[in-house]
Design a protein that fits this description.
Helices cover 36% and strands 24% of the residues. It is an alpha+beta fold. Strands 1, 2, 3 and 4 form a 4-stranded antiparallel beta sheet that branches. Helix 1 packs parallel to helix 2.
Amino acid sequence: MTADDLEAAWAAVHDATPADWYVGRPSYHDERHEWVIYGFDQHERAVNGARSREWTAVGTTEVACLLETARCLRELAAGRVPL
């Protein structure tokens, strides 16, 4: 992974993020050996429990996690559930 790869992956996330969505920073989980990132529609009305418009993406590297996030956000923006 190079700095250019990481920059391109972040650019893909920014380009794919729907209006009103917030995407956090990826974090590495040693116990599972994976990167995880969380995003949600910040204009969804707050209720107790899980949000209905949220998504968590996972990858084996930080770049893979960001690219998976971008893919999922594009699906969500198109009204589809990412598979």
